[in-house]
Amino acid sequence: MTQVFSGNASFLNNENDLILVLGHGQLARMMYLGATQLGLNIIAVNADSRECVNPVDKTVLDLSIEQAFEYCIAITSEFEHLPKDLVQQAEATNKFRPGAKAISAGADRIVEKELLDSLGVANCPHRIVRSTQDLARAYTELGPKLILKTSREGYDGYGQWRIFSLDELQDICNELQEFDFDHMPLVAEQCVNFEREISLLGVTDIDGKHDYYPLTENHHGAGQLVLSLAPAPNSDKELQRQAQEIHDKIAEALNYTGVLAIELFQMGDKLLVNEIAPRVHNSGHWTQQGCAASQFENHIRAIAGLPLGSTKPQHLVAMVNYVGEPKPNNDILKLANTHLHWYDKAVRAKRKMGHINLVADSVQELQSLISKVHDLLPESLQTNLAKIKD
Ligand code: AMP
Predict the structure, then answer these.
(1) 161 CA distance to ligand 1 middle (Å)
(2) Contact of 357 with 289, CB cutoff 8 Å
(3) DSSP 8-state symbol, 387
(4) pLDDT value of position 321
(5) 14-39 pLDDT, tens per residue?
(6) Which residues on adjacent β-strands are paired with residue 44?
(7) CA of 31: how far to CAs of 6, 124, 281, 298, 332, in Å?
(8) In this predicted model, what pLDDT tens digit does every residue of 209-221 receive, in sequence order?
């Protein structure tokens, strides 16, 4: 690298390879932490201001986004809901991995459903809704329980309505009288009666070779992930194989490089895809303590063209999300085999503030650790966890 950087970006004038992450939240931060020991420089881009920032302390760097695009070896993203022009700018460099097509499939439920249907991948029965008449028809065809979702910008349960009766259908149709369906088409999904939610995180290297973490079991409260258990209890080789087959179809259709997360509903021995996330994912945070190479390290390895690290599980892990509450006191740190990951963000209701990975070598040990952590959590987090900890 030539001496083009100055000020607080002059550390870039060395032989370390530069990788750019679009978005500067906790996923960019954890990619930085996962990759820095490999001797790579990770810089985040604030997708609103377009400033280059340090992903950990968020210092704005003396580096323009144009310079960063030019000198980086790879660009990735921590979030699919990105401004279109930023995605196009990244795509034009030919260094964007997993690339604009994958981002669009993750960001727009209509594109995602079209992709899954075109690949013959089972997903929830659904209809595209462009008017209240469409919605009434969808209810007749798929009801009596529907989940209505915005096609874009919906995540963590935001942008969703549950329609469980004709009265509720009427209320929502009234509410949507002035709704701009042209700007934001909706997707009506049949509310499916699944046994549990699981996810598969797979990673594809730059030559198209896939590897996978074991399935993870996920528990939600108010639309947000509360607890992940990994490897997912009671999951056999056949279930893992089915999930991997789905992963490969999607990754190959998207010409994918990096970590791809697939959220699934399990119904007996069948899997339905709920949604895909073209990035590292909350349900893969357990890999930080559970595997030799975490999802963050492996995503960076993949997009940088490096050999992948092992995805084999080394322990049982429970990941507890820490949402909307200030940093816990040090009692949690006193528990052996408990690892706090704090994102250093300002506290806001429903905001993911951090997570705790609990590591054990037996189910009993893990359950006892979950109970101990539960007792140290603030009340709001205990309520969610109490429902599922047994
Ligand atoms: P999503 O934002 O689409 O992942 O939805 C958030 C949560 O709502 C999921 O994790 C499920 O618990 C639930 N959910 C979403 N879609 C459906 C569906 N079609 N049937 C039943 N539950 C659903």
Answers:
(1) 11
(2) yes
(3) T
(4) 97
(5) 767 899 999 999 999 999 999 888 99
(6) 21, 53
(7) 24, 32, 11, 9, 24
(8) 999 999 999 999 8
pLDDT value, residue 54: 97
Structure tokens at 106: 């993750």
> What token pair was written down for 197?
């939610």
Q: How high is the pLDDT of residue 385?
A: 77
Distances (CA, A) of 19 to 16, 78, 258, 306: 10, 13, 13, 13
Owner of token pair 């009671």:
234
Q: Which residues contact 205 (CB under 8 A, 6 or more apart)?
A: 211, 257, 301, 302, 305, 307, 308
**Per-residue model confidence (pLDDT) at position 241:** 98
User: Cα Rg for the chain, rounded, in angstroms?
Assistant: 21
Please state, in angstroms and rounded to a whole number, the distance separating the CA atoms of residues 124 and 126: 6
Residue 265 pLDDT exceeds 70: yes
pLDDT of residue 218: 97
Query: Domains plus CATH for the chain?
Result: 9-96 (3.40.50.20), 125-190 (3.30.1490.20), 196-389 (3.30.470.20)
* Cα–Cα separations (whole angstroms), residue 72 to 24, 36, 43: 16, 15, 9
DSSP H stretches of helix in the chain: 26-35, 65-71, 84-91, 100-107, 109-119, 132-142, 166-175, 237-253, 287-290, 295-303, 331-334, 363-376, 379-386
| CA pair distance 107, 19, nearest whole angstrom | 22
Residue 390: band (very low, low, confident or very high) from pLDDT cuts 50, 70, 90: low
State how far the alpha carbon of 287 is from the alpha carbons of 78, 97, 119, 146, 306, in Å. 17, 21, 29, 34, 19
Ligand 1 atom nearest the C-alpha of 191 is 20
Q: Token pair 């919605």 is at which residue?
A: 135
Sheet of strand 146-150: strand arrangement = 126-129, 186-190, 146-150, 160-163
Tokens 């990754």 belong to residue: 251
Cβ of 112 below 6 Å from ligand 1: no
By CB atoms closer than 10 A (0-12, 13-18, 19+), residue 81 is middle
What amino acid is encoded at 311 in this protein? T
Nearest protein Cα to ligand 1, atom 9: 223
Query: What is the token pair recorded at 326?
Result: 């200030």
Task: Determine the distance separating the centroid of ligand 1 and the alpha carbon of 274, expressed in angstroms.
Answer: 7
Give the distance (Å) from ligand 1 centre to CA of residue 357.
Answer: 24
